Amino acid sequence: MDSFEINKIIASILLVALLIIGISKVSNIIFVVEKPERSAYKVETVGSEQAMIENEVKSETEIKVDIAALMAKADLAHGEKVFKKCSACHSIEAGGGNKIGPALYNVVGRKVAALEDYKYSKALVEYKKNWSFEELNGFLIKPQKWIKGTKMAYAGLRKEKDRASVILYLNNYADNPLPLP
């Protein structure tokens, strides 16, 4: 291939590039698009904006849950199935040792951070409550939000039936299961 052939190839590539740029500039001149000052789409919300702001500000710790109605949704077999996610870090059997997380046998009704042979986060040690049905429900929604500073990195259980079933399952694994509310 001689230099004349190479020059023709390079010239054709440059010509195509110039045509693309030229067409783009000409089309921008011909077709002027005016951008609107505000968005064309408005999302309508149910209720007043003040109510939405109040709901966002209200933390999950302030929301009261009818625990009896929640526990009515519980199913032991479903709780066993959902608990399989938890079993990667927690043991549930009597005499089961701690894993990444503490053993959960007899957890319902027990004081938070009560096991002597497990190193809890500072936030859990300072949390001076018992693992009641309500506390477990709140914690299982989103552990990091319920007790700020906990080292449990689990995202939580959003579905009420899942939480209720896991709580029932945990209550079942105890020497003396607490009566359901």
Looking at CATH, which topology of the domain at 64-172 would you report?
A: Cytochrome Bc1 Complex, Chain D, domain 2
State the CATH class of the domain at 64-172: Mainly Alpha
Q: Any idea what the CATH superfamily of the domain at 64-172 is called?
A: Cytochrome c-like domain
What is the share of helical residues? 40-55%
pLDDT < 50 runs, ≥5 residues: 53-62
The rounded Rg comes to: 30 Å
Count of helical segments? 8
Please name the defining characteristics of this protein:
8 helices, Cytochrome Bc1 Complex, Chain D, domain 2, mainly alpha, 181 residues, 0% strand, elongated
Summarize the structure.
The protein is mainly α and 181 residues long.
Model description:
This protein is mainly alpha-helical. 45% of the residues lie in helices and 0% in strands. α4 (76-83) crosses α8 (160-172).
Give the SSE map.
Elements: H1 3-30, H2 49-57, H3 67-72, H4 76-83, H5 122-126, H6 133-141, H7 143-146, H8 160-172
